[in-house]
Design a protein that fits this description.
elongated
Length: 293
């Protein structure tokens, strides 16, 4: 009877991994049969496969799409909505910079209608700033997390990112459009900060998304009513930014939710281009209407 130990190849006789020639491979890929060292092995339904076969299989597999056209396999990393986390991280870092620079970072990026005319980046950057009160950023980041973890998996990273950025700019445009007469209204000189425009854009996006899914919108409407009322009753809150973000987010999400299936990819590129063009046109018209341009 043969000794099993004698049949096992020695290190000198064992094949080497094609990707790492300096490493001995005692296991072969179940798909292509090539040797694979421990670093190049990936668990499969039966046995293991090499990283090359796993990559090729993933590339050739049909891409799964959500009902809104988002790529289901690129929504999150490790099950987490990465766009939502990224925006929250930027806001937190920005808030810390506001504190450590004694407000200089805030003055550099905040928005006010006159300032947006000569420094247009402020239409976007103000959404990543907050007041020094921890309650302001905590409330907005919590609202962003709640809505983001629902919407991002449905829309996909690209569409969700576009929704957030356009809603942020839409909030600032709302402040500009509703600022009143520049000769009498203090809103033209009042700085505005906060991610509320973006957050209300996500609130607005929930309406067409929930309707498209056939779900009840009762809770969303109640949430909108409560948060909308806060903007009118609590001082130092820009209801104009809330309204601008709300309308922008609802329109963007409606375009994604009701796009024909065979045109979803095209709509994904048309929406940001058309959205930016419309917001720029509205801002330009407003400035021109007061003779600024």
């Amino acid at each position: 009877m043969n000794d099993p130990a004698a049949e096992e190849p020695t290190e000198a006789e064992a094949p080497v991994c094609p990707r790492h020639p300096d490493r001995v491979a005692y296991v072969r890929c179940q798909r292509c049969g090539r040797p694979a060292c421990p670093e190049c092995q990936r668990p499969a339904a039966v046995g293991v496969q090499c990283v090359d076969c796993v990559r090729d299989a993933k590339r050739s597999a049909p891409r799964v799409r959500t009902v809104f056209g988002g790529s289901a396999d690129s929504v999150a990393v490790n099950g987490r909505p990465v766009v939502t986390f990224t925006i929250i991280g930027i806001c937190v870092v920005s808030w810390l910079l506001q504190l450590v620079t004694a407000g200089e970072w805030t003055r550099l990026l905040w928005f006010w209608p006159w300032g947006g005319a000569v420094e247009p980046w402020r239409f976007l950057t103000a959404s990543f700033l907050h007041s020094t009160s921890p309650l302001h950023i905590l409330f907005n980041m919590y609202a962003l997390w709640i809505t983001g973890q629902f919407l991002e998996p449905l829309l996909g990273r690209l569409r969700f990112g576009v929704l957030c950025l356009l809603s942020a700019v839409g909030g600032s445009v709302g402040v500009l459009l509703l600022a009143g007469d520049p000769a009498t209204s203090a809103a033209w000189q009042t700085p505005v900060v906060g991610a509320s425009g973006m957050v209300f854009g996500l609130f607005g996006a929930m309406l067409p998304v929930m309707r498209r899914l056939g779900r009840s919108m009762g809770q969303v409407l109640v949430l909108l009513a409560i948060n909308g009322a806060i903007g009118f009753w609590v001082p130092n809150i820009s209801w104009q930014a809330h309204l601008g973000g709300l309308v922008t987010g609802a329109l963007v999400a409606a375009a994604y939710a009701y796009a024909p299936k065979d045109r979803r990819a095209a709509v994904a590129w048309v929406v940001p281009v058309a959205g930016i063009a419309l917001l720029v046109a509205l801002a330009t018209w407003r400035y021109a209407s007061i003779g600024f341009l």
